[in-house]
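URGENT: need a sanity check before tomorrow's submission.

F., can you look over the Fimbrial protein SthD record below? I want to be sure the sequence and structure line up before it goes out.
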Amino acid sequence: MMKSWLRDVFSGRWRRMALALLISNALIPVPGLAAGSQDTINFSVTGTIIRPSCNIEAPSVVKLGTFNRQDLSIAGANSASIPVLVKLTGCTAGLSEATAQFSGQPYDNGAMGTAIYANQAENGAGDLGLQLINFDGKPLVNLANGVSYSVPIKADTHSGMLSLIARMYSPLGKPTAGDFSSSVTINFIYP
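Structure tokens as predicted:
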């Protein structure tokens, strides 16, 4: 039975009807294939922008030592220079420099406030301030309150080093006996 039905479909009259149906369907435009048609698709794009940064390793306390008043009895005298290393590691790839911004209580005697930090010890030694200077082979800079200093970041190691010297400084050469303490904040800014 099946064979005779198939034979009728592909014979004469059915074949002409099937051919007419195929031709008529071919003339009906199909969306997407017709000229001037359009499809609209929506999609989302996501990403993340990261802020460049580094890991910072620095000593929390720097001990300057104990000195006799006579050791600082000349105007502009200073105590022994103590090296301070601030390491910047694991810096974001592509970061070429960081800017160190220094802040702390400035020395309270005129122009010296732009060069050294105040002794903040309660009943502390007078005529003494903290001098921080760079120690990286560049011309010396007093890294006082409000000063910014550029720290290069090595591309191959993604790291940098801020080399400093810390020391007590006597503007007048007339220090009084007492303790010494000063607090400095270094804020790193990345371009």
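My own read: The mean pLDDT is 87. The CA atoms of residues 30 and 37 lie 9 Å apart. If you see anything odd, call me.
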